[in-house]
């Protein structure tokens, strides 16, 4: 939240700019397209980090769709949606940890070249989305969750490129597994931030709701 806002209710009175809605539509289309690309590439290359990123792209597309659905709703409705997205971010983090563990136990070594090429394409896509959403990073919990998703994705793609170099240089799966673990930690950390802010906004909205019930 911006320090200049008196409380979470201030955000509710601010109209949602049309540019934010357009940015969300663009982000939705980009993430759906990259989900398909990385699912195919991840399974083909045997890369835990690419598969993790593919699931993340799908989760982000769902999040952008939810964000578009609740844009015109109350702050409380947007906060509840942000809470749901925070839980989904946490579930994503746990999934990635499980996938990395499975690959480590079974000794799956990914294809470094495929990781590098797809990781570069994904990085370009995520940086573009992050730039579109950067101006809205200090909005309500719903806007913040969208920004955190795009930021974490760009960081994750940089890490995938480093993992591709590590796999190429060592012939080992450990760089890929390490990046997958990092992405899981980012997802879990982002989830806690979003859930915390959403809970604060829901608490701040309760007194106003109670007052409306007493004085219709």
From TrEMBL:
Its main location: membrane. The keyword Transferase does not apply. It holds the Pfam family Cation_efflux. Gene3D superfamilies: Cation efflux protein transmembrane domain. InterPro entries: Cation_efflux_TM, Cation_efflux_TMD_sf, CDF/SLC30A. GO terms for molecular function: zinc ion transmembrane transporter activity. Residues 24-199 form the Cation efflux protein transmembrane domain. The keyword Nucleotide-binding does not apply. Coiled coil: none annotated. GO terms for cellular component: plasma membrane. It comes from the Bacteria. The chain crosses the membrane at residues 23-45, 57-77, 89-106, 112-134, 154-171, 177-195. It is found in: Membrane. It is a multi-pass membrane protein. Keywords: Ion transport, Membrane, Transmembrane, Transmembrane helix, Transport, Zinc, Zinc transport. PANTHER family: CATION EFFLUX PROTEIN/ ZINC TRANSPORTER, RE54080P-RELATED. This is Cation transporter. It comes from Stagnimonas aquatica.
